[in-house]
Specification:
Largest sheet: 7 strands, mixed
Order of helices and strands: EEEHEHHEHHEEEEEHEHEHEE
Strand order of the largest sheet: 6-5-4-3-2-1-14
Distance between the termini: 6 Å
CATH class: Alpha Beta
Strand content: 25-35%
Structural class: alpha/beta
Shape: globular
Number of helices: 8
Number of strands: 14
Radius of gyration: 18 Å
């Protein structure tokens, strides 16, 4: 399994418009963060989790030329706003893109991208989407890859993380029920959100993320959905336990 962190930033990205803090002005490319998303290549399937507003650039940056499925975690704009940019994949592959989301997310997609789903607006140039309804039960992508959803809470908003074999991706979490935590045991890799140093209403901060990782004990953990308030990548890395690191854009991780 090859996992690429196509974006490791929070909703505003880093640098933030108009900000002159040391992180936003940093010359280290690891301090530049597009909105959170990952690409997975596994069993000859090309999968993206979330199509935020930087989706187009993320696909170009990582030379992604085919796309078999999109999984959505939740409906916030920094996770869905780039859906229109699936069109090149439609043209290349000559077929709709399979998307997997719950009813909560699909309701938002129909509102935000009404022209995709409303028969009155159908014309050849619009994105072609085939929606697959999911809930909290395990499901298969294209009859090839089993996915286990993990429900977390983003303040009061339910968000889905996903487990594929011994890898799991959790973003925008603040609390996780014990039953859902049990789905995150015996992982080779956990990618988990950690927004900043100070506590936040709807996201883990760094301390909370590290505590959860130490409780779950994956072999390796990578942090994502990071804001400029986290601090410089190079400085925060020095403070982390050996098996935990800050993610960065275009980082590739290979799991055997």
């Amino acid at each position: 399994m090859e996992i690429t962190i196509t974006g490791s930033g929070t909703s505003q990205g880093v640098p933030v418009i108009g900000c002159d803090c040391e992180v936003c002005k940093s010359s280290n490319p690891k301090d530049n963060r597009l909105r959170s998303s990952i690409h997975i290549y596994y069993k000859n399937q090309s999968i993206v989790i979330d199509t935020g507003p930087d989706f187009r650039q993320q696909m170009i940056n990582n030379n992604v030329s085919t796309l078999d499925a999109i999984l959505f975690t939740h409906e916030h704009k920094d996770h869905v706003a780039g859906l229109d940019d699936v069109r090149p994949f439609n043209f290349i592959q000559n077929k709709p893109i399979e998307i997997y989301c719950n009813n909560q997310v699909f309701t938002a997609l129909k509102r935000e991208f009404h022209y995709i789903f409303d028969p009155k607006f159908q014309y050849p140039g619009i994105p072609k989407i085939n929606r697959n309804e999911i809930s909290k039960e395990r499901f298969l992508i294209n009859k090839k890859i089993e996915i286990e959803p993990i429900e977390v809470l983003h303040h009061k908003l339910p968000v889905l993380g996903y487990r594929i074999d011994n890898f799991a991706y959790i973003t925008d979490a603040k609390t996780i029920d014990e039953n859902e935590k049990n789905k995150l045991k015996n992982l080779d890799l956990l990618i988990l959100n950690a927004l900043r140093l100070k506590k936040h209403l709807s996201h883990f901060n760094l301390e909370e993320a590290v505590e959860l990782i130490q409780e779950l004990q994956p072999k390796k953990a990578v942090l994502t959905h990071i804001s400029h308030f986290m601090g410089l990548h190079s400085e925060i890395e020095k403070t982390l336990p050996e098996n935990i690191s800050l993610g960065y854009d275009n980082q590739k991780i290979i799991l055997n």
